[in-house]
Amino acid sequence: MRSQRKTGWRARTAVLLAGLGGMMLFTSAYPAQGMAASGWAEKAESGQWKVSRAIGIPEPAPYYELYLDEGVYALAAEDLRDLRITGSTGEPVPYYLESGEETVEARSTAYSSILIHRADKGADTLLDYRITPLAEHVDIQGNKLVFELPDESFLKHVEVWGGYDGNAWEPLAKGDLYATNGLSADSIELEGSYKFSFYRLVVKSNPEGLDFPGLTLVDSSREVKMAGFMRQKTPPYEISQAENRTEIVISNKDRLKITKLTLGSTGNFSRRYELYDSEGIRIPVAGSGELYRLDFKDTRISQTDIRLLNASSSSALRILIYNLDDAPISIAGLKAEYLVDRLVFAGGEQETGSYSLIYGNALALAPQYDIINFKDQIAGGKLVTATLGAENIIPEAAAEPPAQSGWFQSEWGFNLIIIAVSLLLILIVARKLGRTK
Fold it and tell me: Quick one: 112 and 220 in the same domain?
């Protein structure tokens, strides 16, 4: 009896182990399948680039600049996130992208003055000046005072006061005026730009009675502007007449960032116009929304430029010109001005290898390079201009054909084999137990 129980326990254990073994074999094949699926997902995420173009390098340099052309805008992502530069061995080359460069515009306006009053107050001398405006009803504004100095050598501590009527004064600045050993200081910088019509110079401790007979008020300013990289072309366009309107449709299949349209026209006219994109959305423009050309004997004025407040990369632009009861204006031509972007990328003093620009990958993400952190230092140095070569279409990678597998390599075939193996194990164990019994 005990032997039968022991044999039964062994049989049940063997059957259980056989079943577990079959299940383990059944599940062990699926991690590989999961890894393969993950690999395909990663491949799909990376995508494939469509175009490769050689970059021409005229000479070795630490950094290069490369201006994009119409071909890049036609096939690259609209935000240019898929641009990549590669070296001669295919390694990525860091770059940063910019649409313009800063320009500093200096302005300076000078006002003359008249010395209207001089007085001594103890050891100090007071000199009052009245500023002469540039024109009637034009405000006076300045941030720097330039004085006419005495002929002899001197050094004086001074104070500057300002006023609107020559009676009430406000303290503005303190400083030194001097002329000695070929060195001189004849101006006092103010902390801000003031609109005073009168200025008072207080010369401290002036027993010599030195005079400062003239004063010039200067208004200096520096304006930093971003100047875009501009290009011009003659785009394809079509003109049609509908009722009392002239319609001009401009093709922009390369998705250029258009900022200005200029109409070539003749004759005298004045017309109101509107500008729309390919989806029929009105595009804001600078000015009053009028086109005109007045050409008389002694006078010629014209406004045939359409300036967009913001650049548009719409695939088509549509100009509607309202003629009312007048004949349509004669249009002899049309030009478009558009923005381009510049890539600045790292080179090397001894670099003689080749570079390539690749683009046209809808799945690509914008790269992040630390070269952008050194943009100001790079801009202060020499940039050698590189050029783009012809477009080379990158052939699409052939899709891998599905493996020609037999029925036993399919999922249901695999399951059938596992079941058969499990049953065979059970049968073998049962027969051995039967013999033992």
Answer: yes
